[in-house]
Design goal:
Chain A contains eleven helices and ten strands. By secondary structure, chain A is of the alpha+beta class. In chain A, α5 runs antiparallel to α6. Chain A is globular, with a radius of gyration of 24 Å. Chain A starts with a strand and ends with a strand. A five-stranded mixed beta sheet of chain B has the order 1-2-3-4-5. Classes of the chains: A alpha+beta (284), B alpha/beta (97).
Chain lengths: 284, 97
């Protein structure tokens, strides 16, 4: 970090492409010009001495958070401060006592994170605008990554998307893990405990017994209702037994994911077939 | 992410930030399993999401303290985790603040 400059009480690294001046009118121009090292679009902020960090984070006159990795310089990494900073839009914290090479690692990580976030924000914007126009759609997913992305895509086509993501994800994860890959609840707990869960899922996805299995998902908008169908290739489960206990009961036994999905995200859930197909209904 | 911190009075605080989901399982169970404590505080004020696995972890903690539920306190925070705890009626099972 040879190209850093302290200007006044704001400690700034601007690197890479020229800064959009409108966003940084209050940042001394010289600071912007000084920071030319090959780490694009990272801005390090050092809060003014003597000012409470919380107040500084709340200050709307700070630089714009869009399209940038914002890194907050701190004396100690403290979880409360980090959480407050991240909530305020800061990408990550950078302890002041790091060596030059350590700083580079943190700043590179911040840049990657910010670029991922920017990509997501752009995708979210498209989903928000186009989601309500979707009438009918069909997908085929196999992995948890695909399930996570699909939950967000479907949620964007539903009213109150933020309420739908969690329930959709619970059902999709169930279909992949317990349905297609036949991981039992006890096995999952043991694998999570040993830190082997992720590797085991990858191994099962490649296992000839499960490799051809997929989860088929459809979305359909009818007059005043949305229907989401999730069907896996597994052996199904005794849904009557799980549902018999009632939702309250299920929160302290098995089927917590199902109970949570039903209460949080859907107006109704119906299982069909051998329990390998679930249809969720949402009032539009 | 979970940061465990034991205070001088023997209370173990588990501060959760970001997503409280299946990925936290190992951290949570190890923190609870290896550090017996007089009291447990699960602080979700920094969490922005919790799933059904997280509910399962809280029930594990409940099993650990047996009948004495006054030994577990959940700081619900706001947003999605708060709503999930409410939907799951965990206010009946735990001391939720």
């Amino acid at each position: 970090m040879s190209a850093r400059e302290r200007m006044g009480r704001v400690y700034v690294v601007w690197v890479g492409r020229p800064a959009p001046q409108a966003d940084y009118a209050h940042v001394p121009t010289l600071s912007l010009a000084m920071g030319l090292v090959p780490l694009p679009r990272v801005l390090v902020l050092d809060p003014p001495e003597g000012q409470a960090l919380e107040a500084w984070l709340d200050d709307a006159s700070r630089p714009s958070m869009t399209n940038l990795a914002l890194v907050l310089a701190v004396d100690d990494v403290d979880l409360t401060v980090t959480a407050a900073a991240v909530r305020a839009g800061v990408t990550c914290c950078l302890p002041r006592n790091l060596s030059s090479s350590e700083r580079t690692v943190v700043l590179e990580a911040a840049r990657t994170l910010a670029e991922q976030r920017r990509g997501r924000a752009s995708a979210d914007e498209w989903a928000r605008r186009l989601g309500p126009t979707v009438l009918k759609c069909e997908w085929r997913v196999r992995t948890l990554d695909e399930a996570e992305a699909l939950a967000s895509v479907i949620a964007a086509s539903c009213p109150c998307p933020e309420r739908r993501v969690g329930g959709l994800l619970e059902l999709l994860i169930n279909a992949i893990e317990h349905g297609n890959l036949e991981v039992t609840g006890d096995e999952k707990r043991a694998l999570l405990m040993d830190g082997r869960w992720h590797d085991e899922l990858l191994a099962r996805l490649d296992d000839p017994r499960y490799a051809s299995r997929a989860v088929r998902v459809t979305f359909e908008r009818r007059t005043s209702e949305l229907f989401i169908t999730i069907e896996d290739d597994g052996a199904g489960f005794d849904f009557a037994e799980v549902l018999r206990g009632g939702l309250d009961e299920n929160f302290s036994r098995h089927g917590r994911g199902i109970a949570l999905a039903r209460l949080m995200s859907f107006d109704d859930l119906q299982w069909e077939g051998r329990g390998n197909r679930v249809i969720g209904r949402i009032s539009a | 992410m979970i940061i465990a911190n034991k205070s001088t009075d023997g209370a173990l605080t588990l501060k959760v930030s970001g997503q409280f989901n299946f990925a936290c399982y190992k951290q949570f169970t190890e923190a609870v399993g290896t550090a017996p404590a007089s009291r447990y505080v699960v602080d979700l004020s920094g969490a922005d999401y919790m799933d059904s696995s997280a509910l399962g972890m809280l029930l594990l903690l409940r099993d650990k303290v047996g009948q004495d539920l006054s030994r577990v306190q959940i700081v619900a925070g706001s947003g999605q985790p708060h709503e999930v705890l409410k939907l799951a009626n965990f206010h009946r099972l735990f001391n939720v603040v």
